[in-house]
Design a protein that fits this description.
The chain is an all-alpha fold. The chain is 75% helix and 0% strand. It is built from 5 helices and no strands.
C-alpha cells in the first residue's frame, strides 16, 4: 500500500495553518496567553506564518522522495525550534505545556511522514 500522500497531506495542513497565522496572528498568540496588540508582535508572528506556509508548500510540491525528505527536515527543524523558543518564553506559565506539546507533536507527526518516502510500492 502506498502512503506517499501522507507528507503532502501534512504539507497542506502546515501551509493552511501558516496562512491562517499570517492573516490572524491571534491564532498563535492567543493560546500562548499573549496579546496581538503590539505591531512588532504581530509582525514577528506573521513571519512565523509565512515560514510555515513556505515549508508546507515545499512538502506539497517536492518532486521526488529526496526533495520531500529535505522539505520534511526543514519543517521538523522549524517545529523543534518553536518548541525550544516557546518552552523558554512560557517558562512558569500554564500555557507552556500545551504550546510545547503542540509544536513537538507537529514536529513528530511530520517526521513520521518521512517514513512514507522510503517505502517502495508493491503491485
Amino acid at each position: 500500500m502506498r502512503y506517499d500522500w501522507l507528507p503532502r497531506a501534512a504539507g497542506i495542513a502546515t501551509a493552511a495553518y501558516g496562512i491562517a497565522v499570517a492573516a490572524r496572528p491571534a491564532i498563535l498568540l492567543g493560546p500562548c496567553g499573549w496579546s496581538d496588540e503590539p505591531p512588532a508582535v504581530r509582525a514577528l508572528t506573521r513571519m512565523v506564518g509565512v515560514r510555515d506556509t513556505a515549508s508546507g508548500l515545499a512538502m506539497i510540491a517536492a518532486p521526488d522522495a529526496r526533495s520531500m525528505r529535505l522539505a520534511i527536515a526543514v519543517r521538523v527543524c522549524s517545529d523543534l525550534g518553536d518548541t525550544a523558543v516557546l518552552g523558554l518564553a512560557l517558562r512558569g506559565r500554564p500555557q507552556r505545556a500545551k504550546a510545547v506539546a503542540v509544536t513537538a507533536g507537529w514536529g513528530l507527526l511530520c517526521a513520521a511522514t518521512a517514513m512514507a518516502t522510503t517505502r517502495t510500492s508493491s503491485p
